[in-house]
Amino acid sequence: MLQNETTTQLPNGPRVGDCVGDYRLTALLGEGGMAKVFAAEHLSAGHEVALKILGNERSWSATAARSFALEAVASQRIGHPNVVAVLDTRDHEGQKYHVMERVSGISLRELMDAVPAMSVARVVAIGRQLASALAATHAAGIVHRDIKPENVMVDERGGKLTVKLIDFGAAKDLHQPSVVGESIMGTPIYMAPEQMWGQPTTSATDVYAFGLLLYEMLAGKLPFKARRFVELREERSTQEPTPLRISLLERLRAARTRVSGPAPMLREAVPPELEALVMACLARSPDERPAAMSCVLGRLTSLESVSRAPLARAVRRLATQHQTAPRRRHHALGYVAAALAVFASASTLISDMHARGPCDGAMIVAAR
Question: pTM for the full model?
């Protein structure tokens, strides 16, 4: 459980109430195998930030150190309003940490839990901002590689929607020399087929994951039934995703024959242009997906008229609940625990997958 009290003792590192450099830690927002994230307040200026502190036990890991450093590099290169900003990187008593923008609102996962099948207007509004963030990310030579609802923050104040892409802990720098046998990094149920097979990842890999997010926001479910890694990899590599738009008769027929998996939406619910975009993003081959995220953004912009409908109050309501209720691991304000890349060895991954079965929410790293 995440705790908020100033007396909380955190193992192997600072605790809430401690001072780290020029900042006092005010709350634990999340933790993972690589780092802990705290809300913090500047001692003299008083402004709030988030501190992501690399754990001492991970400092020896070259992979963790490179990923941690890349977060700062990526932020500096991208410089986009829909991407969380790393303001500075410092060292405190041998512990490296990022000073980061404090992000308000809730995660897209929390919003999707509250609104399982969103309106087309909301999906387009969120999708346009996220596509803009990813277009800037790719233009900067960065592939995120872990696009999922937990890594997207949504805030709505005064009728204005703001979306932030967070967590570049699994990112790849295309400016760096590629390596043979690329590591498998990311969250299995949001991976592209090539990513699951350890093949080279490119901006098209993020396009695929973006398509999964659009699909899930529209349908309330993902377009594939499998959940175990090996089965999901095979299904995603050989089968087409369940269509978003089918007739009522086809829907009833599918309901009789489909034992499990996502229920398709009614034909009238999703504009054909939007379904075509989602399915293009979910093409099995990277070469068959939209050529760039900027192209995706352009197609979403053409649907701008449907995004002008008023947004529901779910974002504001859930954010208010967070302010009044105790923070829990899956309900943390700001830069949440999902902004942590959980690094593990290949042997740990394999044993963990066999032990726990479905790996729906896990970040994995495995050498091919």
Answer: 0.76
Please give the DSSP secondary-structure letter assigned to residue 83: B
Query: Any catalytic annotation for residue 146?
Result: yes
CATH number belonging to domain 106-181+188-317: 1.10.510.10
Cα–Cα distance, 230 to 247 (Å, whole number) = 32
CA distances from residue 174 to 169, 177, 198, 242 in whole angstroms, order as listed: 15, 7, 16, 32
- Catalytic residue, chosen from 18, 113, 146, 173, is 146
Q: 10-residue block means of pLDDT along the chain (368 residues)?
A: 36 80 90 82 91 71 79 91 93 86 92 88 95 97 95 90 92 75 79 92 96 93 85 88 72 62 58 94 96 95 65 60 52 41 33 36 44
- Residue with token string 């939007």: 274
Domain residues of the chain, as ranges?
Answer: 106-181+188-317
Calpha distance 289→297 (Å, rounded): 13
